[in-house]
Amino acid sequence: MIVVRPAEPGDRPWIRDLLDERWGGQEQVEDEEVYRPSDLPGFVATEDGERVGYVALRIVGDVAEIGLIDAIRPRIGVGAALVAALEGSARERGLRRVRAVTTNDNRVAQAFYESSGFHLVEVREGAVTRGRLVKPTIPLASGDGTPIIDEWVYERTLDRAEGRHPVAKLIYSAIASLDGYIADEDGNFDWAEPDEQVHGFVNDLERSVGTFLLGRRMYEVMVAWETMDLTDQPPSVRDFARIWRTADKVVYSSTLDEVSSARTRIERSFDSATVRQLKESADRDVSIGGPNLAAQAMEARLVDEIQLFVAPVVVGGGTRCFPDDVRLRLDLVDEQRFANGVVHLRHRVIG
């Protein structure tokens, strides 16, 4: 029987030996930051009184991060039991997210996190390469010869009460002109193209999204991210491509026969009960794109948050950002101004 308990002072020599023997030394490096797992709180898994696993808890802002996890002699359930203990500690500390970081070559860890409900939210390109500047003992390649270059970041959202699932938010996000249009009368929206600063901010917002709900026209615009050549593209473009490709997509269309992107399905009509059920079951937020589809969600009182980027331009007409016949009460929870004149307004729907 596997038993997980908090790490005790008597475990420290064993933890330090573990780090030397299996992790190349006492110091670990993540995103070029050095830390010592043996100095962190953690949990030890035992079986018949023998230590068989260890996890370190690293608090980074409002996130509980798995600073290190190791099943010494792998048993079914050791990793899951250690993660469950860490998540329980995170809840007690009032934290809502758990983060795990592994490397691009570690398929076992990637599969474990994905099967445990974690979602890939970021790939830090070249982070391991840069980490070798402070820890030269990091291997250059895995046992099968795969170069170790990038850090893969996974996250999982927690509710504050154990056993309860957090309800995901349905978010309507758009870039609009000052007079409220997402495209002009000719269908152009090149004036809305974000610069590197705005694009990076958009990416940070979208990391919480696990599912995109799209109308046909919006899908036909966005699907280019599926096959876009990312060679020589700036970091913000590569980052958003990863966000898009790893998320689920639902396309609402009565005429579209097939899709050209992975993780995508077609729905013939917008059903509010189905979307409400999706929100209740999802462990990540849901984004709705396109004013016509968003209008249906607003009429059904399903939208929880509106994220609007206002571009410093007046276009005089075109496709409106908001429907005419919907009235919502909003609470401004955040605003951000950018160097190019764009303003981001984040509102919570309160009625």
Describe the structure.
The chain has 351 residues and is an alpha/beta fold. The chain has helices at 12-22, 78-92, 107-115, 127-131, 196-206, 216-222, 224-227, 235-246, 272-281, 291-299; strands at residues 2-6, 28-30, 33-35, 42-47, 50-60, 63-71, 97-103, 119-124, 151-157, 170-177, 181-183, 209-215, 248-252, 264-267, 285-289, 305-311, 319-320, 330-337, 343-349. The protein contains ten helices and 19 strands. Helix 5 (196-206) runs parallel beside helix 8. The radius of gyration is 23 Å and the shape is elongated. The N and C termini lie far apart (51 Å). Residues 160-164 have low confidence and may be disordered.
Question: Can you describe this structure in just a few lines?
Answer:
With about 350 residues, the chain is α/β, with parallel strands linked by helices.
- Shape, per Cα inertia axes: elongated
Largest sheet: 8 strands, mixed
Spans of 5+ residues with little confidence (pLDDT < 50)? 160-164
Number of helices: 10
The percentage helix is 25-40%
Mean pLDDT across the residues is: 90
Beta-strand content estimate: 25-35%
Helix and strand element order: EHEEEEEHEHEHEEEHEHHHEEHEHEEEE
| C-alpha end-to-end distance | 51 Å
The strand line-up of the biggest sheet is 14-13-12-15-10-16-19-18
Q: What is the CA-atom radius of gyration, in angstroms?
A: 23 Å
Count the beta strands. Answer: 19
Based on secondary structure, the structural category is alpha/beta
